[in-house]
Write a structure and sequence with these properties.
Structural class: alpha+beta
Number of strands: 13
CATH architecture of the largest domain: 3-Layer(aba) Sandwich
Order of helices and strands: HHEHEEEHHHHHEEHEEHEEEEEHH
Protein name: Serine hydrolase
GO molecular function: hydrolase activity
Radius of gyration: 22 Å
Keywords: Hydrolase, Signal
CATH topology of the largest domain: Beta-lactamase
Shape: globular
Organism: Lentisphaera profundi
Helix content: 25-40%
Number of helices: 12
Signal peptide: 1-24
Number of domains: 2
Length: 380
């Protein structure tokens, strides 16, 4: 029997009402290996039969405090959002979580979204590389002053007699602003299969000379790779172990972070985290680097991330933008990944919003969903 639009909508609302009362968010199938959830593996996850939606998320004892979203108009806004999402308006949205005033108040999973399943993050991987750096600074492996030191000062195996002019001027902060100035006529050089510092030796030998003109903003994977290389050196050649012990273990979660051919973790893309993990990271940054009330990330580094006086742009692998406002200030600090991956911090609203999707385009779809339905309610 073919249902008319009204009947389909009533069935959808009945699903929605049941989801509000659901006790457990959908998880990976029994026997799934959460730590092997690469983007390729995630393609085999079947779509959920219906969206899971909760305005009173379950306390999973994972370090996230939960609350209830009962603000006037919230139920109607959520119903409208679910209707639009069901019709595909937001292009394969897998999860949307809202954490406000210290509590998770909204949790939605649909399609491939799973509460315990790491989701690919695309360029939020760059953001997480910055988070790893913040942890290393907190532990004293590097200092804030090191941000203005040359990258090659931390790479003892680089043969300086062979590098191009100006490479010695590239600082960590340049790399964190995507302003290293590295430019290549032959792009294949960035895909060479040399290992670790030998990989960067090839880059530094084959780049065009670094000048003040070339040190303009250019979004590239080589810049965060330099940061990851330095982190690998500072962690005795095993940055994956450092990530596992000092980032993931502290968060109390699971993850999957691929390696690139050069022998260090992928930096342009390649990391996979659960949506709740990204909520915890975002709230830690919102709270000055504390995690569960304890120091975790360098507060000095977090201040740099959260400093809105830098204006709009891309700094420390976080986007600084104005969204949903005409005020002359930045109120949106976010890791953003292709296809609609967001770890967004709204300091003026004491709020973190996380979204995951599996799109090829439509990167702004989660922002559209928030703007269409939620921001006016959350702004009160």
């Amino acid at each position: 029997m073919k249902l008319n639009t009204k009947q389909s909508w009533l069935i959808l609302l009945s699903f929605f009402s049941l989801s509000l009362l659901a006790e457990a968010a959908p998880g990976l199938a029994q026997g799934s290996d959460a730590e092997n959830q690469t983007s390729k593996e995630q393609k085999s996850i079947p779509d959920l039969a219906k969206a899971y939606v909760s305005t009173s998320p379950t306390d999973l004892k994972d370090g996230i405090s939960v609350g209830e979203w009962n603000a006037p108009g919230a139920k109607q806004a959520i119903e409208a959002f679910i209707g639009d999402d069901q019709e595909g308006k937001y292009h394969n949205l897998d999860s949307l979580l809202i954490h406000k005033d210290g509590k998770l108040i909204f949790e939605m999973y649909n399609r491939r979204g799973r509460v315990d399943g790491p989701h690919y993050t695309m360029s939020v991987t760059k953001t997480m590389t910055s988070v790893v750096l913040a942890r290393a600074i907190q532990l004293g492996l590097l200092s804030i002053n090191d941000l203005d030191k040359p990258v090659i000062d931390f790479m003892p195996e680089i043969d300086r007699s062979k590098i191009q002019a100006g490479v010695e001027s590239i600082t960590l902060r340049d790399a964190l602003y995507m302003k290293s100035g590295l430019r290549f006529k032959n792009k294949s050089i960035t895909r060479n299969k040399l290992q670790k510092q030998a990989y960067f030796q090839a880059l530094f030998e084959n780049t065009a000379a670094i000048t003040s003109e070339s040190k303009e903003y250019k979004y590239a994977g080589t810049d965060p790779s330099m940061i990851m290389m330095i982190l690998d050196i500072k962690s005795n050649g095993n940055v994956q172990k450092f990530i596992k012990e000092e980032v993931i273990a502290k968060l109390g979660t699971v993850y999957c972070w691929n390696e690139q051919d050069s022998g260090i973790p992928s930096c342009g893309a390649g990391s996979n985290f659960t949506s709740r993990t990204l909520v915890k990271v975002g709230t830690s940054i919102l709270n000055g680097g504390k995690l569960n009330g304890e120091p975790w990330l360098s507060p000095d580094y977090v201040k740099l991330i959260m400093d809105t006086n830098k204006g709009e742009g891309y700094f420390y692998y976080f986007h600084n933008r104005r969204k949903f406002t005409t005020e002359e200030k930045v109120n949106f600090i976010s890791g953003i990944g292709a296809g609609g991956q967001y770890m967004s911090i709204y300091p003026d609203h004491n709020m973190v919003i996380v979204a995951t999707s599996h799109n090829k385009k439509n990167i702004d779809s989660p922002l559209k969903a928030i703007g269409d339905h939620f921001i006016q309610i959350l702004d009160k």
